[in-house]
Design goal:
By secondary structure, this protein is mainly alpha-helical. It is built from 20 helices and no strands. 76% of the residues lie in helices and 0% in strands. Helix 10 runs antiparallel to helix 11 and helix 12 packs antiparallel against helix 13.
Length: 374
């Protein structure tokens, strides 16, 4: 007779079912916890974007981060002032907001540092932007030693020496710049500008012609060629280029002045006066035009008119030899002999002072010798 089975004697085939049910419960619990954890993580991950949207835009968050990094680096450098990489990092962070402080930080990066050239480039860039030639020059020279084929660096150094009136050195770098990139109009114009400053007017014509060949519409090249042709005796070219400039820029007082000078040299004083009066209608403060008009008035023996035109500028132009010469002539024509004599003596002193200055095309050793003697 069959008897019912007791719970203690359950068939083994039932046990796996009970274990499966128990495992399913655990899985459900784990899934639930996992979902909650994922929700919390997602919610925490969305918090910055919420701050970003409430703040308005992403750059606000970025700026705050940079300020925090900046503060950390400042505090760190107070304790570790010789950490070059920290100086470099701080310089990169503040170069736009505090360029002068950034220069100080970049200067701590030594030649052996992997970021040295980057720091030198930053110093050159900041110094040029802030008009600090004494900081920019050594940085540019370092970059040129590392990469002598960088035409932009050569051009930047040439411009610095041009500003200082050191035309010999400026020409050295400008020639290298033109050799590296002869197809750039700016390089040809730079060469011509340096030659003009050095007083080598006739040599300006070659780079200017090349500039016009590269860019026939370059107004600067045409205007400079008019100047070079005028002062090297090529009146036909000077007139052609000046008229080209006027056809493209009718209010060019410089082009009108060149035409007036051409007319004066030809003895056509009335035509010259017409051009210079037109220029002064455009810009009554153009001093070069005022000086030329005074010269035309003196040529016509109108000394009183020339004197009245020039005298108001004495305080600001008394070191200008061309002005002093014109005023002396005008004073002489009006009978002011004592004043004319004083102006002539002043002019002689100005000529002497100018002659004592070292030539821009002398060697550096001669310049240094004369500087020490003075």
């Amino acid at each position: 007779m069959n008897t019912p089975l007791k719970p203690d004697h359950l068939s083994p085939s039932v046990l796996p079912r009970e274990r499966k049910a128990l495992s399913a419960g655990v899985v459900v619990a784990l899934v639930g916890c996992g979902g909650l954890l994922l929700f919390l993580l997602l919610d925490r991950g969305q918090t910055p974007s919420a701050e970003k949207s409430s703040a308005g835009s992403e750059p606000v968050v970025k700026q705050k981060t940079e300020k925090e990094r900046q503060k950390e680096l400042v505090v760190y450098l107070q304790q570790h002032p010789h950490d070059e990489f920290a100086h470099f990092q701080l310089g990169e962070l503040i170069r736009k907001r505090a360029p002068f402080q950034a220069l100080e930080n970049f200067s701590h990066v030594s030649p052996g540092n992997p970021h040295y050239l980057e720091a030198v480039e930053a110093i050159a860039s900041i110094a040029l932007a802030q008009d600090l030639p004494e900081k920019a020059k050594p940085a540019l020279q370092t970059l040129i030693r590392q990469d002598p084929d960088n035409a932009q660096t050569q051009a930047a150094l040439a411009r610095l020496y041009l500003q200082e009136g050191r035309y010999r050195r400026a020409l050295r770098y400008a020639r290298r710049c033109v050799a590296l990139e002869p197809e750039r109009v700016e390089n040809q114009l730079l060469m011509a500008e340096i030659l003009r400053g050095a007083g080598r007017i006739s040599e300006m014509r070659e780079p200017l012609k090349q500039a016009i060949y590269l860019d026939p519409e370059s107004y600067s090249a045409h205007l400079s060629l008019a100047y070079a042709a005028l002062y090297s005796g090529d009146t036909a070219t000077a007139e052609r280029e000046a008229r080209w400039c006027l056809s493209h820029q009718a209010d060019s007082t410089t082009a009108l002045r060149y035409l007036a000078m051409i007319d004066r040299n030809r003895g056509e004083i009335q035509a010259a006066m017409k051009n210079i009066d037109q220029a002064l209608e455009i810009d009554p403060t153009d001093f070069d035009c005022l000086l030329l008009k005074a010269d035309l008035l003196i040529y016509e023996r109108q000394g009183e008119a020339a004197y009245d035109l020039l005298k108001p500028f004495y305080a600001e132009q008394k070191t200008n030899r061309h002005y002093v010469t014109a005023l002396a002539r005008a004073a002489g024509l009006t009978g002011k002999r004592a004043e004319a004599l004083q102006l002539q003596q002043l002019n002689q002193r100005l000529i002497k002072d100018e002659d004592l200055r070292p030539s821009s095309l002398q060697s550096d050793s001669v310049e240094k010798k004369q500087a020490t003697q003075n």
